[in-house]
Amino acid sequence: MGCSVVERIRTDGDKGVRKAIPPCCLKAMGTCPSEAKCHETVVAGWFSEGRIWALCEAHSLKVERILYRGKSDYQEILVFESSGYGKVLALDGIVQLTEKDECAYQEMITHLPLCSIPSPKNVLVIGGGDGAVLREISRHLSVEVIDICEIDQMVIDVCRKFFPNLSVGFEDPRVQLHVADAVDFLKKAPAGKYDAIIVDSSDPIGPAQELVKKSFFEIAAMSLRPGGVLCNQAESMWLHTHLIQDMLSTCCETFKGSVHFAWTSVPTYPSGTIGFLLCSTEGPPVNFLDPVNPIEKQEGALKFRRELRFYNSEMHRAAFALPSFLKKELSTVYNSQLRYCSSSVYVFVFSPPHLISVLDSTARQRLVWAFG
Fold this sequence. Notes:
The chain is α+β, with helices and mostly antiparallel strands. It has two domains: 8-98, Spermidine synthase, tetramerisation domain (Spermidine Synthase, Chain: A, domain 2), CATH 2.30.140; 102-334, Rossmann fold (3-Layer(aba) Sandwich), CATH 3.40.50.150. The chain is 26% helix and 27% strand. The protein has helices at residues 23-31, 102-114, 132-137, 153-162, 164-167, 182-188, 214-223, 241-254, 313-318, 324-334, 361-365; strands spanning 8-12, 17-21, 42-43, 46-48, 60-71, 76-82, 87-91, 94-98, 122-127, 145-150, 175-179, 194-200, 224-233, 259-265, 273-280, 337-340, 346-349. α7 (214-223) packs across α8 (241-254) and α8 packs across α10 (324-334).
């Protein structure tokens, strides 16, 4: 697919071939001629996302100008200025972020886990080459070490150039950048090193598909301290229910603390929503549903002189409220599962209410309902 509307014709001086130049590319070349060229996802001035995970729909953004296109060893990178959402980053034709709504994703994927545990000190980010998750972690002054493992150096370089308000996170002296494969990196990490791991990956295709396999979750769990937490991007509840079910099933087998699904609204993602999988290892109980470490009370909340635009404690709690259809779908995974934790806390995950009767009154008071 290519740009279909032609504004003028030029002659290739070397080959004498007449080539059509679409208007979207003319405008782009006029503003950044050395970097902006036509792109197959831009048709008549509109970017349309061709997403494998959402074959039943298409989402389009009006393009003001194409700022950059290039190809790394792993993926194609496109940056363009949109009419309504500011600058947009797309990888392999899939929108990763826009300046207007990136706050919803970046703030939630970061503060949902970090505000659920007291005083996190060692945090690992997997992916996140745009730097925005680092920006959000920097608000937590208790954090001493921020490791980031990003496989694609070109993503980092492009985002530093075109998205300085996001990549500012790399300026934090606590950040240690590792350009490497995440699975290999975690295999070498000391057991129990991290308080939290945040997996800010692209869709689970290509290199990122390794990040939804049981083998990955197993080494991630080993890298967390007792009572440590993992937050993993978990796609759309409207379009990817089977993937969510598979991830939840795998994580219930792997993480011996608690497993929760949360979600938020991001307009430029398929169906306008994105999910998060939150898991904790066996150890001190983690109640994801109620932030014990509220960001509003932290001195670093205004880091980089930037106020939080989306996340707050109310949004934190609301993220775990699930629609009825999703509760029903997830019950196929969690129905009647009972786990006994080392702290003598019974954890029911979406179990039928009548099963509570098998517990005594003390045990009932210690139940943790993961899905309401």
